[in-house]
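Appendix B. Raw example, untouched.
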Amino acid sequence: MDRINTFSARQTAALGLARPAVAHLQPFEPELADLPLEKMKAELGQDRVIKLSFNENPYGPSPRAVEAMQRELTQLHLYQDSKGDDLRRAIAADLEVEPEQVILTNGADELIFLTAFAFLEPGDEVIIPTPTFGQYRASSLAMGARPVPVALTDFRIDVETILQAVSSCTKIVFLCNPNNPTGSFISQEELDYLSRRLPENIVLAIDEAYIDYVTDPSCALGLRSLAHRENLLIIRTFSKIHGLAAARVGFGISHVPLIEALQRARLPFNVNRIGQAGALASWQDKAYTDTMRELNTANREYLYTLLESAGMSYIPSQTNFVLADVKQDAAAVFRQLAEAGIIVRSGAGYGLYRHLRITVGRKEDLTRLGEVLRRC
């Protein structure tokens, strides 16, 4: 007991040395829906678990990406290219920008954090349409900035409410498009309207983690707005459609001055050798990406029919997940699904207590999901 008390006292003393913004942060504590698949199985005491909680690609990465990563295994004693020039050049060529306009990061999470680190001071304000991905708020708080939540309208981002929330302290606006957890999107017209009216001294950061799943041509693309806004940052990832979530590769696109600011904040060697190789091979395998998009679209439509047959409604999605209104306490439905070996994401963390966010999985897994939902 004395040893425990001594450790607790030391922990308290260490927190006292931390910046106030850091001392008040809460460390990430994974819940059941956050666990890796093998730990889920152990937690539930089941040999087979269907994981539909993390918006992962259920088909995994391109075989070309796997082969490219395997070839790098004999080179792990050597440091990788610090800036990932081969991958940056490939991305830039396809997106018709210069390589200097591209930055590689350890997943999109690191780029979100770097954006906050590079541009925020204590007391700055960060506008965040809510509910959305939690990393925008966490990164802002870590810098001592004040998150300014802006409510969605009918589960959609409303650009007018964003503009109304702007103050002299506003430094960053984070947009997730399509949005997590709703799956809804803003149009190109809406994004252009926002980017032209937002004061130029504000960074407009658009998280396009799910953009590769989009099939609706009216969905906004940050690249189309880049020409008429200097301080616009596009955030993308290889974790979703590319199926490289554990490789931790993300990238950002902007004008050179903003990218240079982020490069100054970035630690060297932040994207590992294996991740760079897999991401480059996956980026070049356009046919595989197209197949993943087509499968996701078909399976998403199938999920819609399953939800309807269970008497539930949903928000039409342009992503690899669907936000479902289960018409009752979602926690009870979550528990029933977990008992059946199916893990989804509760909406409670987003303040949506009748909703579940369901990853679009393989058809056979969705069929099993539908069977259980009809009994709920």
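End of appendix B.
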